[in-house]
Amino acid sequence: MKKTLLLGFAALTMVAMLSSCGKVPQEKIDAANAAIDSAKAVEADVYLAADFAAVQDSMSAVMADIEVQKSKLFKKFGPASEKLDRILGMAQELKVNAVAKKEEVKKEVEGLMTEVATMMEENGKLMKKAPRGKEGAAVLEQMKAEMATIEATVNEAKGLYDAGKYMDASNKMKAAKESATKINTELNEAIAKVKGRK
């Protein structure tokens, strides 16, 4: 009698375990999706694009696994449940890191604006000292046009910065800095060349 009761209890326990393992972890799926949406809301897809894509890929893989398990007679959602816990943690960490990265890019843009403004002012002074032969005049006109383009790019970047689009502003300011640096180098070399002849 006692043995029968124990076997019955064991059977009930097994059924309960199988029943528990056979349920889709919907709450965890919802929590992971909410965390991913929350990370996207702070532009993790912009400021930490590779990490965000990795979390999305992991989520897609887990959902594909869950769909496979749903079609089986003996469903096993334990591994998927564990992966969902990890994805939830990754997405929450991603949100924190994205906020920090956005602030970092914002400060980077501010630094670039200062750098480019200083270089453009210097370029203006160097242009007055640059050699003005027949070819020199044509080159200087071309540089003036390039500097006007740089100023337009900087203004676009300021607009993006004011709109909170720091990554786009950063990309424009990096391009502006590269162009301003090129002009600065060419002017310094031209001036040094003329001085070297004297």
Helical content stands at: over 70%
Please tell me how large the radius of gyration is.
31 Å
Distance between the termini: 116 Å
Quick one: how many beta strands?
A: 0
Rounded mean pLDDT score: 90
* Uncertain stretches: none
Write down the secondary-structure element order: HHHHHHH
- How many H/I helical runs? 7
Strand percent estimate: under 5%
Could you explain the architecture of this structure?
- With 198 residues, the chain is mostly helical.
- 88% of the residues lie in helices and 0% in strands.
- The chain is rod-shaped and about 110 Å long.
- The model has no long low-confidence stretch (mean pLDDT 90).
- The relative contact order is 0.09.
- It has 7 helices and no strands.
- α2 (26-41) packs parallel to α5 (78-129), α5 (78-129) packs antiparallel against α6 and α5 (78-129) packs parallel to α7.
- It has helices spanning 2-21, 26-41, 44-47, 49-70, 78-129, 134-162, 166-197.
Produce the secondary structure layout.
Elements: H1 2-21, H2 26-41, H3 44-47, H4 49-70, H5 78-129, H6 134-162, H7 166-197
Helix pairs in contact: 2-4, 2-5, 4-5, 5-6, 5-7, 6-7
